[in-house]
Design a protein that fits this description.
With 255 residues, the chain is α+β, with helices and mostly antiparallel strands. It has three domains: 3-59, no CATH class; 73-155, SH3 type barrels; 170-252, Alpha-Beta Plaits, CATH 3.30.70. The protein is 33% helix and 31% strand. The chain has a five-stranded antiparallel β-sheet, covered by helices on one side. 16% of the residues are buried. The mean pLDDT is 87.
Length: 255
Amino acid sequence: MPLRTFYNHMNVIKEIFDLEIARSKSDGKYRVSNYYGKGQEEIVSYLSLNATLNRYKDLKGRVLYEKEPRTVHDLLQKVIQAMHEGKKLNLEYRKYGETWPKRRTLSPYCLKTFKRRWYLLAKEGESLKTFAIDDRVISISVMEIASSYPADFDAEAYFRDTYGIQPTPARNVLVKTYGVETDYWRSSPLHPSQQEIETGKDYATFSLKVGTDAWEFVQELLSRGDRIEVLKPFSLRKEIARIIEEMRGRYAEDR
């Protein structure tokens, strides 16, 4: 690889992922010098695995990756360009369920990933909204119009109590897990606020402080099936029960 190309890649990695690669004076090798943070660990781990597999061609077809939703990297690059240059975006976007796309003028705030999808948080008019950077985007372009970004806006704080991409008021949640499901919750917490507050012979109770009105959170709980039980708040427990009853009714019908 030409040295100039290598340095260009290093600069892009620094800009997008905040990962710095520096040359060691002791042995002349290049290493990630600011290795910290969960997101960065995942990136480095993924790249390291790819590099390892490239050395062992005989393992082709035996290490299977989860297929990601369609992400057009040109779209991400334009969003990053607009954020870097402080410009607005012209977005032609069609939500799922809508027939026709709509054109929107957005001030981009930040990019966020969830469930292997990229999302853009942007201001439209006076409202902050979230847009998926996938096949819902018909077209996107960087405008020659300055975009304002509040100096006191903290993206991490904005999403702190969020599960998914839609911030909703945080509430105290208690979830009881049964059997081996408990081990899954311990090894991969549902939310950073998760704590184990009770441990029994074949169960455990976890507390979380998270927005419960988000569709993604309800769907995640439902995906755990009969291995969990929502104890509090009662409104969430009632909503879960309503959905389960509706599902039971559908499956009870003769086909």
